[in-house]
Structures are given as structure tokens and as C-alpha cells.
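hey so i finally got around to running the thing on that chain from the lab meeting. sorry it took forever, my laptop kept dying and i had to restart like 3 times. anyway pasting the input first so we r on the same page abt which one it is
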Amino acid sequence: MATETLHFPSEKNNDFMQKLRKEVDDYFEQNHLSKRGNVSLVIKTIVMLSLYLGPYLLMVTGVITSTPLILIGWILMGLGMAGVGMDVMHDANHGSYSKNRRMNNLLSYTLYLLGGLPVTWRIQHNNIHHSFTNIHGYDDDIEPIDILRFSPHQPLRKIHRYQHIYAWILYGLMTLLWITTKDFKQLFQYRNRGLLVREEKSFNRMPDPVVFCDHAFHSRGDSFHHFSNRSCHA
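ok and heres what got predicted. didnt touch it at all, straight out
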């Protein structure tokens, strides 16, 4: 990551930003819309959490035991997991799900169900990504492993001509990376950069939720273990 500090023009002296903010505010006001979540988002939250947790509970309690139903359950859990990530925890960690700060904090914890840590997600996404969107050397979101290239300023390798094919497979493995190494690395990186302090978090208190995520990962493996046993004894 780059070490040079970037400076942006003040919004007070930026006509574009002032006009853009006014047009956005006018849109919500003229259409009588709230900038926070509405009934549709609440319904979506219930549906996505049900899709994610419902099949899981049915599998670990032994209600679902046949291989075809377990596979269908995995597919439904995948859809629910994506929905929780893109709708529920995303908006909650942005503070835009509800006007109630406690409700936002509560729903931000749904990220634990996905194996992530809310504080590191907020730092990477809200503080870094939205402040330095797509800026090479500053935006962590475009700094993946070497075989993925998201910026013309990154080294070009021969394998990159095929990334439109293999990137989808790697995306499917992101949760494993998230649970096993990513959050741990980011905790140390953000502590050293002083970013945890901005979130009013103490590094010494971070291991508890991280350990919870680890246990959640291993408990999710129970359904895979059950499926594997059935397959071996079929």
C-alpha cells in the first residue's frame, strides 16, 4: 500500500460535490423517500436470514438427511448468505439500515454469520474503499492476490488474460480466506496504522469475536461432515 497521504478538496470549495449532494437530497425529498431502510428491506432481511439459517438448522438437527436435499440446502444457504452480505450487514455497517444506531449495531453483527468481523469490514469498506475508491495503492478492494488485476497500474501477467474465467472460482473461495487469515492480518495492519482507534476499538478486545467466527466456521463444517459420512457409507 502507498504511504503518501492523499488530500481531497474541501466540499465547501467544491461546486460539484455541493450540487451533487443537493440533487441527491432533493430526490429523496421530492419522492418522499427515506434515506434509511424501509419495509422492503425488513422483509428482505427476514427472507435472507431464513434462507441462510433455515436449511442449516434443518441439516444439523437431522431433519434433512438425504444427499439431494442437503445439496439444495447448500444452494439456498448460498443465496441467503449473499443476501445477508449485500443487504443486511452492508447497510447496517454503513449506518443506513435504520435511524436507530443500536439497531444498526445489532444488525451489523450478522457479518459474524458470514465469518467476518464488523470492525475490520467497516475500516476497509467505509473508511478506505469509499475514501479512495479504485485508487491504486490506497483502495484495499482492488489489491487482491497477484493473479487478479483490477488496476492498469498493477503489473500485467500472462495469466491475467484468463482472469475473467478463474476469478469466479476464486470469489467462491473468499469466505474461506476471510475466516482463516484475512481478518487476522487486517487487525494487525489496522492497529499499526491507527485505524482501530478511529473505530473506538481496542486491539486487546478483538480476539473474542474473531474466535466466535472461527467456532462458527467449524460448526458449519458439521453439515459437511454429516454429508461426507453419508456419501462414504452409501
